[in-house]
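Need a sequence for this fold. Nothing fancy.
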């Protein structure tokens, strides 16, 4: 069984920070591309950030560029999203995901999804 479990979400004031974590279990994800996605009420799920298998390449949506940082710790089989300067429009359920194909991550069709963690940013 493969599981991705997000944590670190919560309620934060605008301008604040949160660090999301994604703990992977069931297999070694060190050779997988991974990503963070979010879905706000009434909106489609969108990619927030992605990282390749080595961690040497990253992608950020324009809406979060300069504010969010994706990283991974292969020794801990974990993925992180540092979110700074949070805005109310960042409010969403955030999901981590993994796939052997970076293309699948970018196309928002990864093989494995976490259950999501709620991030709420108040004005």
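Here you go.
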């Amino acid at each position: 069984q493969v599981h991705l479990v997000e944590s670190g979400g919560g309620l934060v004031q605008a301008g604040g920070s949160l660090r999301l974590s994604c703990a992977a279990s069931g297999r070694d994800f060190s050779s997988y591309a991974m990503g963070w996605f979010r879905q706000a009420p009434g909106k489609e799920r969108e990619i927030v950030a992605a990282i390749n298998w080595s961690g040497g390449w990253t992608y950020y949506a324009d809406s979060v560029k300069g504010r969010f940082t994706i990283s991974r710790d292969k020794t801990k089989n974990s993925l992180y999203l540092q979110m700074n300067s949070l805005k109310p429009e960042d409010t969403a359920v955030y999901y981590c995901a993994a796939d052997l194909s970076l293309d699948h991550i970018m196309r928002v069709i990864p093989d494995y999804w976490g259950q999501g963690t709620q991030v709420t940013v108040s004005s």
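For context: The longest strand covers residues 18-25.
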